[in-house]
Write a structure and sequence with these properties.
The complex is a heterodimer of chains A (about 375) and B (about 180).
Chain A (H helix, E strand, L loop, with lengths): L12 E5 L2 E2 L4 E2 L1 E7 L2 E8 L7 H7 L6 H4 L7 H16 L5 H29 L4 H21 L8 E2 L2 E2 L5 H26 L2 H7 L7 H7 L4 H4 L7 H4 L20 H25 L19 E9 L2 E9 L7 E5 L1 H7 L1 H4 L5 H10 L4 H5 L1
Antiparallel strand pairs in A: 1-4, 2-3, 4-5, 6-7, 8-9, 9-10
Helix pairs in contact in A: 3-4, 4-5, 4-11, 4-14, 5-6, 6-11
Chain B lengths: L1 H10 L19 H13 L5 E4 L2 H4 L3 E5 L4 H10 L3 E10 L4 E9 L8 E8 L4 E3 L8 H12 L2 E3 L25
Parallel strand pairs in B: 2-5, 6-7
Antiparallel strand pairs in B: 1-2, 3-4, 4-5
The chains are: A alpha+beta (about 375), B alpha/beta (about 180).
C-alpha cells in the first residue's frame, strides 16, 4: 500500500475538489494531482470554517464556553457537551447525581443515532442513491423532536451543565423514546434490506479505501474508522466514564479495513446505542439532576486536565490548562475527524477518483469540527 | 502495567545525577514575601523528568517533561510501545518566557495508559524537532501548533498555515496577541 505509485502517463493535471463540493460535506478542499482517472497525490486544505474556538475558551469563563461545544460537531453536539462538562467536573471535583448521568447517556446515545443517520443518508447519496436519505431523515426527525422537547434545541445543544443537566426529562421524553426504539429497529431492518445487502453498494465499497491498523495508529484515527480496521477501541469501554459500565452492549469491530467495514460498524453501532437507551430507561434512577453542593464560580485548581469521550466520530479529547482563574489558561479541543481525515492524503494515492470520494464519505466528515 | 513499563522506559532518558543540595530557603518574617515565594514556587516551571500522575484527578497516567533534544528519543520509545498519537498542542507560558509543546498519546488495547510528553522552548526563538518521521499524523498537529503559536518544527516537510489563511503572519494563541 505504501509502495510508490507508478505514474501511468508522463503528464498529470491538478483537480480542485471543493471548497464547495457536495462530496466534501461542507467547506473542505482537496487539491488532487490526477493521472487520468487515478489520484497521484492529494493535499487536503483546511480552515475555511475556522473560528478559533480554542481562543474563545481562553476569553470566556467556563460556563460561558458551554454553548461553543455545540458548534463544533453540529451532528453529535451532545457528546461534546458531555466531554466538556466531564473535564470541568474532573478539574473541580464536582460530584454528579446518578440520575443526571443516566440522562446524559440517554441524550448522547440518541444523538449518536441521529448523527449516524445523517451520515448514512449522505453517504448513500454520495454513492448515487437518493432514496435512503429520505428514510434516514424521517427517522432522525423523531430523535430531533424528542431532544428538542427536553433541550430546547434541534442541533446545537447546550444541555449538560457542570454537575448535572439543564432540566429534568419529562414523560413526553420517556414515552417518545420508548416508542422510538421499536420504530428504529424496524427502520434498521429496512436499511439492511434496502441498502446494506445491495449488490451495487457492495461493489462500490468492498476492498475500496484500505486503511490498515498500523496506519490508524500512526495517524491517531479513532471511532468507526479504527473499528473498521480491526481495532477494538472505544473510549466508552477502554476508558469507562459516566455510567457506561452499568450497561451491557457490544463494540462492533470489523477486520476488512475497507469502506464497507466502516459502513457496517456504524450500522451496527445504532443497534448498540438502542440497547444502551433501552437499559438506561429501564434503570433510570429517581433523584436530583443537580448536586446539592456545587461551587458558584467555576475555578479549577492550577494544573492541567484531560478528558476523552466517545463522540459519534471517534475520541473527542479536551485538555484544560488552568491557572486557577475563572477563565481557562488554555483550552485544547482534540477532534476525531481531524485525525481521521488526515490519513486520506496517504490512503487515497493510486485510487480512482470515484472510489476516493466513496472512501471520503466512509470517513464521516464534519468540517466545523475539523476546523474548529 | 503499561504505565510502569513506559515510565521506566522514559526514565532511561534521565540518568541519575548527583543533585546539589537545594539552597536553604531564607526565613522571612514578612508574611507577604513568604506568600509570594510560595506562589512563585508553585507556578515555576518544573524540572525535566518523568512523574506518575493521579489518573482520577487529571486524566493521564504518565507525564514526562523532556528537553527538545530528547524529544525524538522519548517519542520513539512511546512509538515502540505501540501507542497512537492523540494530539499535539502548545501552551504559552509568557511569565516564564517559554512556550510549551504538549504531546498526547494513548493506547488502543485495554491496558489503559495515557502518556503526556512535554517540552519547553525559548519564547523568542521557539524551535523543536518534528516527529512526523515517527508519527505521520503529527503533520497537521504540528502545522496547527505552528499556526497558533509560531513554534517552528525543524525538519517538518510542509510547514505552511493549515487552519489560518495562507498569508497569515500572526499567531493568535500567544498571550500577547492583539487582534
Amino acid at each position: 500500500m505504501s509502495a510508490p505509485i507508478q505514474l501511468r502517463s508522463d503528464e498529470t493535471f491538478t483537480l480542485n475538489v471543493g471548497p464547495q463540493h457536495p462530496a466534501t460535506h461542507g467547506v473542505l478542499r482537496v487539491k488532487m494531482e490526477m493521472d487520468g482517472e487515478y489520484i497521484y497525490k492529494a493535499e487536503t486544505v483546511l480552515g475555511y470554517i475556522h473560528r478559533m474556538h480554542e481562543k474563545m475558551g481562553e476569553n470566556r469563563t467556563y460556563a460561558q464556553f458551554l454553548p461553543n461545544l455545540g458548534r463544533l460537531d453540529y451532528l453529535s453536539a451532545m457528546a461534546y457537551n458531555h466531554g466538556y462538562v466531564l473535564a470541568v467536573e474532573r478539574a473541580c471535583g464536582i460530584e454528579v447525581p446518578e440520575r443526571a448521568e443516566y440522562i446524559r447517556v440517554l441524550t448522547v446515545e440518541l444523538n449518536r443515532i441521529s448523527s449516524h443517520l445523517v451520515w448514512f443518508g449522505a453517504f448513500i447519496m454520495d454513492l448515487g442513491g437518493f432514496t435512503p436519505l429520505m428514510y434516514a431523515f424521517d427517522d432522525r426527525e423523531a430523535i430531533l423532536d424528542i431532544l428538542e422537547g427536553v433541550t430546547g434545541a434541534r442541533l446545537t445543544y447546550c444541555y449538560h451543565r457542570f454537575g448535572g443537566v439543564y432540566n429534568d426529562i419529562d414523560d413526553d421524553f420517556i414515552e417518545g423514546t420508548k416508542a422510538f426504539i421499536p420504530r428504529m429497529r424496524k427502520a434498521l431492518k429496512v436499511y439492511e434490506n434496502l441498502v446494506t445487502k445491495n449488490i451495487i453498494l457492495m461493489k462500490r465499497l468492498k476492498e475500496i479505501g484500505p486503511v490498515s491498523a498500523e496506519m490508524c495508529r500512526r495517524y491517531g484515527a479513532t471511532g468507526p474508522v479504527a473499528r473498521g480496521s480491526g481495532i477494538n477501541y472505544d473510549v466508552r469501554k477502554n476508558e469507562p466514564y459516566s455510567v457506561y459500565n452499568e450497561f451491557d452492549y457490544d463494540i462492533p469491530v470489523y477486520h476488512e479495513c475497507d469502506s464497507y467495514a466502516r459502513y457496517m460498524v456504524r450500522m451496527d453501532e445504532m443497534e448498540q446505542s438502542l440497547r444502551i437507551i433501552e437499559q438506561a430507561l429501564a434503570k433510570l434512577p429517581e433523584g436530583p439532576i443537580m448536586p446539592a453542593k456545587k461551587p458558584k464560580i467555576i475555578k479549577p485548581p492550577v494544573g492541567d486536565y484531560y478528558q476523552a469521550v466517545e463522540a459519534a466520530r471517534g475520541s473527542f479529547g479536551i485538555r484544560i490548562v488552568s491557572n486557577g482563574d475563572k477563565n481557562a489558561y488554555r483550552m485544547k479541543l482534540r477532534s476525531p475527524t481531524y485525525s481521521n481525515m488526515h490519513l486520506f492524503d496517504e490512503a487515497c494515492r493510486g485510487m480512482l477518483i470515484a472510489d476516493a470520494l466513496a472512501f471520503m464519505g466512509s470517513l464521516d466528515l464534519v468540517i466545523p469540527e475539523m476546523d474548529r | 502495567m503499561m504505565t510502569e513499563t513506559i515510565k521506566q522506559s522514559l526514565e532511561e532518558l534521565f540518568p541519575p545525577v548527583e543533585t546539589a543540595a537545594a539552597p536553604a530557603v531564607e526565613e522571612s518574617t514578612d508574611q507577604d514575601a513568604a506568600d509570594d515565594k510560595k506562589k512563585a514556587a508553585a507556578t515555576a516551571p518544573r524540572a525535566n523528568g518523568v512523574i506518575t500522575s493521579d489518573y482520577q484527578a487529571c486524566g493521564y497516567h504518565v507525564d514526562a517533561q523532556v528537553a527538545p533534544e530528547q524529544l525524538l528519543a522519548a517519542v520513539s520509545k512511546v512509538n515502540e510501545a505501540g501507542f497512537f498519537i492523540e494530539s499535539i498542542t502548545g501552551v504559552d507560558w509568557i511569565a516564564d518566557n517559554q512556550l510549551e509543546v504538549v504531546y498526547d498519546f494513548c493506547r488502543y488495547d485495554f491496558d489503559l495508559c495515557r502518556v503526556v510528553i512535554r517540552t519547553r522552548t525559548d519564547r523568542a526563538n521557539p524551535e523543536v524537532p518534528t516527529i512526523t518521521e515517527i508519527y505521520s499524523g503529527a503533520n497537521w498537529h504540528e502545522r496547527e501548533t505552528h499556526d497558533f503559536f509560531g513554534i517552528k518544527f525543524a525538519g517538518h516537510p510542509h510547514l505552511i498555515p493549515l487552519l489560518l489563511p495562507e498569508d497569515a503572519d500572526f499567531h493568535p494563541l500567544l498571550k500577547d496577541f492583539k487582534a
